[in-house]
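[User] Once you have settled down, look closely at the record that follows, and write a paragraph about the fold.
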Amino acid sequence: MAESPSQSDAQLVAHQSPGQQADSDLTSLVFEMSQQVQMGMENMLKMVYEIDQNSVGIKEEIEKSKDFAMEKKRILEEEKDQFQKAAYTILDMLSNSRG
């Protein structure tokens, strides 16, 4: 009858020297830590992707705001020019009526 893997592993561990047991424990610890580091890296990559996606949206909003501000500036400049022309016309009319 064949032994189950857990029974043979338990017998193998029982027959290991303390040095072999320490090596085995250290290997297990390094493996577990590498798994945790890999999971951490994957989570960080997900966060970086999310940050990148959000920054694209923010950049688009900034660009829209710039466009809106430039259009508003253009409109205000046109209104300023119209008021200046009207003011000069009125000043011209007043100076001509006195002369």
In short: The mean pLDDT is 87. The two ends are 128 Å apart (CA to CA).
